[in-house]
Amino acid sequence: MPVKAYDLTGRTAFVTGAASGIGRACAVLLAEAGATVHGADLDARGLHETATLIKDRGGTARTHHLDVTDRTEVRQAVESCERLDVMAAVAGIMHSSPVLETRDEDLDRVLAVNFKGVLYACQEAARLMLARDSGGSIVTMASGAVDTGGPGLLCYGVAKAAVVQLTKTLATEVGRYGIRVNAVAPGWIRTPMTDRHDAGAQAHTEALMARMSPLGRVGEPEDIAHAVLHLASDASAFTTGQILRPNGGVAMPW
């Protein structure tokens, strides 16, 4: 019954960062699996486009225009859900600067979105799941940066490492209530976040990243969405506190 194990019919999923990239791919795939999807993002236009994609494919979507760094906005959006079975905390930003040139405001901004934004989503999701005594699955978005050092990635890597620790800690605290908490740590994925160079430089970067992978390619948002669906579904019913690494084999930690 592998197909049935991935069926989310009758369930509700909340996805932050749903306006584009990995978040959009997750929202669309979770909806295709049968879930009613609540998408949240600061990008109202992109969020509307995601909802339209879901509805055009026969799915059900709700939208929440919010800033994940605002705890109150996150709480109100999550509490508006009649039920919550899946939280996918995907929203994130990129910043690059050498350690010696990193400013306080750089670190604060990245931590606010990439760690605190995930923390708030996890807290509010877990509170609602506990209140409804319904169990559920929380999926956080880490990064391959937690396994390999990279020049310029101090702020991003530190925030994602904090997400991993949050994931493991929360998993130990809520597992007894039937709530699973896992992280996805993607490798290089072709998204608006990674597409921040001119065409020539972008092609060079992607070619370099592809050569580092045994599979010889970079990832697509859908590659990560399938990992999120696995962790969101009953197919991973005995999995919690883990890091799933769809990275093309670039990092292979024990």
From TrEMBL:
<protein>
    <submittedName>
        <fullName>3-oxoacyl-[acyl-carrier protein] reductase</fullName>
        <ecNumber>1.1.1.100</ecNumber>
    </submittedName>
</protein>
<dbReference type="InterPro" id="IPR002347">
    <property type="entry name" value="SDR_fam"/>
</dbReference>
<dbReference type="InterPro" id="IPR036291">
    <property type="entry name" value="NAD(P)-bd_dom_sf"/>
</dbReference>
<dbReference type="Pfam" id="PF13561">
    <property type="entry name" value="adh_short_C2"/>
</dbReference>
<comment type="similarity">
    <text>Belongs to the short-chain dehydrogenases/reductases (SDR) family.</text>
</comment>
<dbReference type="InterPro" id="IPR020904">
    <property type="entry name" value="Sc_DH/Rdtase_CS"/>
</dbReference>
<keyword id="KW-0560">Oxidoreductase</keyword>
<dbReference type="GO" id="GO:0004316">
    <property type="term" value="F:3-oxoacyl-[acyl-carrier-protein] reductase (NADPH) activity"/>
</dbReference>
